[in-house]
Structures are given as structure tokens and as C-alpha cells.
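TA notes, week 10

Several of you asked for a full example with nothing omitted. So below is the full record: C-alpha cells for the whole chain, then the designed sequence directly under it. When grading your own attempts, check the secondary structure regions first.
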């Protein structure tokens, strides 16, 4: 499960990412609570607009950000993006502490955070494959997700308590401090031990990533499934905050819900790390599990009962996303990995501008339970799409050893072009490898004569 931690560079990256992500979740909790309670009066629609502005740039800038991740040194790109995001956190914290922050100004900062993350996310995701060898890439992706969700377990709870004790502005400043952990980790990483980058022999064109994904039906289906969950099912800040208010909870109650969600998320990430490789069928099953768990959570009458169901929601969500991330990374041409991962991150983060305002409007108009049920339906539809593709792809076969059991072929068929054989010069050695049976001589006798002439051939 933890084999990638045997690599020095990955250990350094893991620790730095963990500390930085804890701060990120503290800030995320503070930002949601500021918009929902300080800048508006429980307006979930305004919160949806904030999320749309923050997650919109990855979708709009997908071609350029993917090209940057493939063209430039990803370690240096991350140093720039992390510094930029740190400065933004400091600015928001100061404006909140001086009571200058307004809703339009917060929307501007949300957009700026989105631009920074648009460049940071594809470089960060692809950089994991630079730190470890290919055979450990899937494990490293899962452990990276475990780090993210460990932070999700700690960050929202700490952020909620920090908001109650000292206010939202200090949560942003605390996040700014945690960025130093990532910057120090990036400086400690040994460049000589990174996996050599594979560069395309031709010109790096932005459209190559789109063409590559379009020619891979398995990736198209994976992207569609992730989009449905990202747009309508993964609006947890809206769901959890509005449900917390419905149950009469404050910021600490909302932060606790996010942390409980992270318990299942961490378990899902660690289970993914145990698997030898990412499989499409796991993505399909996890999407169905998300739909069922979300639907059940929408009917919970008590706060603690709703919190318990979030463990299963988090488990299925991260199982799907981690497996999808690992599948995309490990099956993609290395020369296009940055651009393909930019597309993948654009699907996840870029789907939010479409779904978050809708989820916010539904939560405000019909209640948070209805909004959760819409997300549950999206998960079930995503699973159905994946299952139908699997049935039509020819990967589902009946097992040869049991007529009532099925097996799934997870390998991708490759078209192999056989090279034209080069004629060999005639010799006794060549003749002995191509025995010709004479009239009245059996095939076994011919093989025996050949072996007798060349006894070393048996060892081969």
C-alpha cells in the first residue's frame, strides 16, 4: 500500500502536499462560510456563483494550461503557482480582518484562485508521475489522494474551530503559512532522481491532447462519468453547509461534516492504493455506490445520522476519482500526459461552474435534500453509461471455466504491424531450424533428428 513512500522525492512531496492541503481545506471552509453567512444571508446561489468562478478557469484555459504542464519544468511551474496562491490567501485574509471584503470582491478573488489552480492542478497531477517510476504511478496517485483526503479530514474541522474562535480572516492567513511547506518540499526534491521526461519528437500542439482523448473511447466514457459527478454530485460545500444550517449547526458543525466525509474519502484512497492498477469497472461500481449513498443521506432526519452516511459518500467518491485519475495517467502516452491531465482536471473542476449554480438554486428553492437527490441521480446515470459502454465494448466475456460467470478484459487492444522479415543467408544452422519431412518420415522423427544434430536447441 505504501511502496511509493520508499522513494525519497515522493516522501518529501507527500509531506509537503499534506501540510499544504490541510491549509487549503481550512481556507475552503472559511470561504464557504464567509459567503454563506457574512456576505449574504444564507444565500446558496451566491455560494454556487463563487464556486463557478473559482472552478471555471480550468475549463476555459484547459488547452494552454496543459501545454504549460508538458512544455516547462513542472517543479518550477508549481513553485510559481504556489507562490501566487499564497499571496492571494494573504490578501483575502487582510481584507477580511479589516472588514473591507464585499461579495463582488470575494468573487474577484475566487476567479483569481481559479486561474492559479488552472495552472497548478495539471502540473501537480502530472508531476506525481515524474517522481516515481511507471510501475508505481498508480500507487503514487492513490497515496497522493490519501494525502489530500487526510488533509480533508483535518482541515475543515480545524478551520471550523478557528472560525468560531478567531474569525474567518485568520483561517486564510493560516493557509498562507502552510504554502511554505510545499515550497520547501519542491526545493528539497532531487531533480536528478526524477523520472526523465519523454518529449514528443514533433511540435507540441494544443489540439493533440483533444485528438488523443477523442481516439480513446475508454477515456471519453471516463471523462463523461467524472463530469456528471463533478457537475451535479460533488457540490459538497453547498450540500454540507445548507444541511448544517437545516440541522441548526454553526461553522464548527459544518467543518465536522466535511471532516467526517473525509473519513470515507481517506479509506477510499487507501483501498485504491492497495490495487495493483486502476480499472474501469471500479469506476463504474463506485459511481453507483455514490448514487445510492447520496440518495440515502438525503432522507436522514438527524444530524448524526446524516454525518454517518457521508462516510459512504466520501468512500465511493474518492474511490471513483482516484481510480479514474490513475487510469488516465497510467494509460496515457507520456508525451501527452500533461495535456490529457489538464483535460481531466478541466472536466472535474470545470464541471463545477455548470453544476454549482444549479445545485445552489435547487438548494435555495427546493431545499438541500432535493439538491442532494439530483446529485445522486447523476451518479446512477454515470454508472449506467459506464456499464452500457462496457457491454458494447466487447470487454465482457464469459469465463471459460464457468459458464455462468463473466470476466472483464481490462487491457486495451493494440494494432500491431508485423515487420517484413529480412531474408537470411542459407546455412546449416538455418536449415536445422526449419526441418523438412521426407516421404515416409514422421514429424516427430524429424524433430528428433534436428535435436540430435543441435543438442543445445533443447535448452532453448
Amino acid at each position: 500500500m505504501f511502496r511509493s513512500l520508499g522513494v525519497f522525492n515522493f516522501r518529501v512531496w507527500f509531506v509537503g502536499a499534506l501540510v499544504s492541503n490541510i491549509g487549503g481545506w481550512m481556507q475552503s471552509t472559511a470561504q464557504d462560510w464567509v459567503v454563506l453567512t457574512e456576505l449574504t444571508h444564507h444565500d446558496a446561489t451566491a455560494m454556487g456563483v463563487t464556486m463557478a468562478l473559482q472552478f471555471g478557469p480550468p475549463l476555459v484555459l484547459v488547452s494552454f494550461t496543459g501545454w504549460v504542464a508538458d512544455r516547462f519544468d513542472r517543479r518550477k511551474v508549481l513553485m510559481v503557482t504556489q507562490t501566487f496562491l499564497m499571496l492571494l490567501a494573504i490578501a483575502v485574509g487582510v481584507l477580511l480582518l479589516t472588514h473591507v471584503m464585499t461579495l463582488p470582491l470575494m468573487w474577484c478573488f475566487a476567479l483569481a484562485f481559479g486561474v492559479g489552480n488552472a495552472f497548478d492542478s495539471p502540473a501537480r497531477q502530472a508531476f506525481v508521475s515524474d517522481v516515481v517510476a511507471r510501475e508505481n504511478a498508480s500507487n503514487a496517485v492513490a497515496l497522493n489522494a490519501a494525502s489530500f483526503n487526510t488533509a480533508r479530514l483535518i482541515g475543515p474541522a480545524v478551520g471550523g474551530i478557528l472560525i468560531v474562535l478567531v474569525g474567518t480572516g485568520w483561517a486564510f492567513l493560516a493557509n498562507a503559512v502552510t504554502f511554505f511547506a510545499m515550497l520547501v518540499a519542491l526545493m528539497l526534491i532531487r531533480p536528478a532522481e526524477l523520472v526523465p521526461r519523454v518529449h514528443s519528437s514533433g511540435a507540441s500542439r494544443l489540439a493533440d491532447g483533444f485528438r488523443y482523448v477523442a481516439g480513446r473511447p475508454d477515456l471519453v466514457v471516463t471523462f463523461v462519468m467524472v463530469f456528471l459527478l463533478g457537475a451535479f454530485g460533488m457540490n459538497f460545500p453547498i450540500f454540507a453547509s445548507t444541511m448544517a444550517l437545516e440541522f441548526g449547526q454553526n461553522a464548527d458543525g459544518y467543518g465536522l461534516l466535511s471532516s467526517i466525509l473525509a473519513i470515507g474519502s481517506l479509506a477510499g484512497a487507501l483501498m485504491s492504493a492497495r490495487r495493483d492498477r486502476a480499472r474501469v469497472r471500479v469506476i463504474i461500481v463506485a459511481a453507483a455506490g455514490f448514487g445510492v449513498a447520496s440518495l440515502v443521506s438525503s432522507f436522514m432526519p438527524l444530524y448524526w445520522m446524516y454525518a454517518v452516511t457521508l462516510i459512504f459518500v466520501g468512500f465511493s467518491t474518492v474511490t471513483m476519482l482516484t481510480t479514474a485519475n490513475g487510469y488516465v495517467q497510467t494509460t496515457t502516452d507520456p508525451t501527452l500526459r500533461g495535456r490529457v491531465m489538464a483535460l481531466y482536471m478541466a472536466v472535474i473542476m470545470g464541471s463545477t461552474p455548470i453544476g454549482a449554480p444549479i445545485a445552489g438554486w435547487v438548494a435555495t428553492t427546493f431545499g438541500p435534500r432535493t439538491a442532494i437527490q439530483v446529485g445522486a441521480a447523476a451518479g446512477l446515470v454515470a454508472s449506467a453509461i459506464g456499464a452500457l459502454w462496457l457491454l458494447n465494448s466487447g470487454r465482457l466475456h464469459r469465463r471459460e471455466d464457468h459458464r455462468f460467470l463473466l470476466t472483464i478484459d481490462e487491457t486495451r487492444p493494440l494494432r500491431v504491424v508485423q515487420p517484413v522479415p529480412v531474408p537470411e543467408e542459407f546455412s546449416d544452422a538455418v536449415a536445422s531450424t526449419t526441418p523438412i519431412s521426407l516421404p515416409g518420415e514422421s514429424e516427430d522423427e524429424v524433430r528428433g533428428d534436428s535435436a540430435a544434430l543441435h543438442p543445445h536447441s533443447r535448452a532453448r
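The chain has 20 helices and two strands. Use that as a sanity check on your answer.
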